[in-house]
Amino acid sequence: MLTTLLEHIHDPKQLKALDTSQLLVLATEVRAFLVKSIAETGGHFGANLGVVELTLALHRVFDSPNDKIVWDVGHQAYIHKMLTGRQGLFPTLRQKDGLAGFPKREESDHDQFGVGHASTSISAALGMAVARDLKHQHHHVVAVIGDGALTGGMAMEALNHAGHLGTNLMVILNDNEMSISENVGALSRYLTKLRSDPSYARMKADVEQLLRRVPAIGNRLTNTIERFKDGLRNIVVPGQFFEAFGFRYLGPVDGHNLPLLLNTLEDAKQLKGPVLLHLVTEKGKGYPSAENAPDKFHAWPSAKKGDKRLKSYSQIFAETLSDLARADRSIVAVTPAMVPGSGLTGFAVDFPDRCFDVGIAEQHAATFCAGLATQGMRPVFAVYSTFLQRAYDQLIHDIAIQNLPVVFAVDRAGIVGPDGETHQGAFDISFVRTIPNMTVMMPKDAIELRQMLATAFTLNAPVVVRYPRGEEMTEEPAKPLEILEVGKAKIEREGTDVALLALGPMVEIAVQAADKLLADHDIRAQVVNMRFVKPLDTECVLACARNMPIVTVEEAALIGGMGAAVVECLADAHVCAKVQRLGITDAFVAHGSRGDMLKELGLTVDGVVQAAKSLCRQIDQTEAH
Ligand SMILES: Cc1ncc(C[n+]2csc(CCOP(=O)(O)OP(=O)(O)O)c2C)c(N)n1
Ligand SMILES: CC(=O)[C@@H](O)[C@H](O)COP(=O)(O)O
Ligand SMILES: [Mg+2]
């Protein structure tokens, strides 16, 4: 049987024994393995194909885990995982109890920093470098950051600090001109200039040659000459931006030329102080469809939908927004580098002047919305729940205190599935509900999502509409869209034995649980679609609590969630009631399918039935005594 080089790599140290031609063979094998494996499991695709040579070169030149390699976002770390003893786990990628889709410290000593969100690598690597210095150690620290992630404010803050400290740190900028979709912004334009202007490369070579010829004689003269050299460099040598931050800039270098990469890394490794190595790579390299449409192959494309009426919540949000925007010219959409994920591709085409991709910059996006709102615009901040965490102070300081009418379209709220801990939308209710002036709602289905968006624009205050990752059956909405009464829950099913207070997609689970409770246990459950977490329908909650025990069901953290709001309401009204809360317990939810993880949390029909049954049994026992 034919064996491959890759099969025999269990430790990156083994790469040191391979010559360049063997490494080139290995690169081909890695690509083939990656394509086959991700086609089976799904996962992040294009970014990994783009760093095959880089990852091989890094593990050949550096000595992981003693040398620290820190990946930004981490969606491109699959090859790193393959080369560090985890190749056999790829069939379990992003599945429950399987290999994680991002680096995780508990998974391997080679994963130096847990990640999933963008723009953290330079800060984390700098922390590691400073710890090394304080402990008088001598290893290398390397951060690998993409051109998209570099647009994040944190990356700039870290460059600023690293340049100030001046310690040994290598930052590798993996520039493929792409974020998930095309990278945007002035910095991106600057990188394009560095990459593509042949005169830069020519001038750089000429100047370096000229500088080498200038003789260094005598101290005073040397200083003058050095100043002259620096001046010349600043005029014509690319990388001025990074040099101004205190980094030595190297590049641009072809990130797919393995021999060149090996030499460049070996040289760069000898340099002292902060160094930025600018690599030019291609997202999707080696897989033509991904090379031609890197945005579509950021992750392996999901199977085509069979039923045309099945749409993602993101699509329903964006279509509704387009309808509303046609009627109201003040509506604008703002997204932090998530045009396709948020469903905004069509909106961006229809309203190019009213759709703003601000790059990976959630903090800026929030305050940008605030500014728009002060001028009478109606900004919609389309953001994943997990990434909204980045903008908490902006939410309070820039939006809520001034009671500005920003609509937060909070996508991926609840369990997201295969991305795991870093991406679960667990906390938004807890962190938003505590802020004065905020309204928080969650639709049970597509129709309600449309109604809630329309309702949000009737309020002259900040509003969160949260909705899950997933698909919904959708019919053409009745027009005009019904405006909901703010703070009013809806009783979906009358009952007398137990009240199931549910939020979002959990309403359907509760309805099915009520059917089962009646059929199998003769328990009549009342089902309430809470709709609003804030303001809470306290009248409805108290009416339920006075007559029956309560089970709350939500796809959100229990601490601070909708159930917590119900319990606060009872405490404030001095009403004693038996309440069982179902939701995300005080632990991070790992990766796995959405279904698997909801099951683990008891957020299923059976989970609700069990909880309701046991509450009713407790009450029967109390009454029997
Ligand atoms: C704070 C944050 N916002 C948004 C995202 C979603 N996201 C994941 S990868 C990515 C693009 C990153 O682009 P780049 O760093 O250039 O890496 P590439 O995929 O091009 O290799 C985005 C926007 C994220 N992970 N974290
Ligand atoms: C790495 C990252 O943050 C994104 O690529 C994320 O995985 C996208 O998630 P969705 O698939 O839910 O859009
Ligand atoms: Mg990129």
From TrEMBL:
It comes from the Bacteria. Thiamine diphosphate binds at residues 75, 116-118, 148-149, 176, 287, 362. Residues 311-474 form the Transketolase-like pyrimidine-binding domain. GO terms for molecular function: 1-deoxy-D-xylulose-5-phosphate synthase activity. Its EC number is 2.2.1.7. Pathway: Metabolic intermediate biosynthesis; 1-deoxy-D-xylulose 5-phosphate biosynthesis; 1-deoxy-D-xylulose 5-phosphate from D-glyceraldehyde 3-phosphate and pyruvate: step 1/1. Its cofactor is thiamine diphosphate; Mg(2+). SMART domains: Transket_pyr (SM00861). Mg(2+) binds at residues 147, 176. It catalyses: D-glyceraldehyde 3-phosphate + pyruvate + H(+) = 1-deoxy-D-xylulose 5-phosphate + CO2. Binds 1 thiamine pyrophosphate per subunit. Binds 1 Mg(2+) ion per subunit. Keywords: Isoprene biosynthesis, Magnesium, Metal-binding, Thiamine biosynthesis, Thiamine pyrophosphate, Transferase. Homodimer. Catalyzes the acyloin condensation reaction between C atoms 2 and 3 of pyruvate and glyceraldehyde 3-phosphate to yield 1-deoxy-D-xylulose-5-phosphate (DXP). Belongs to the transketolase family. DXPS subfamily. This is 1-deoxy-D-xylulose-5-phosphate synthase.
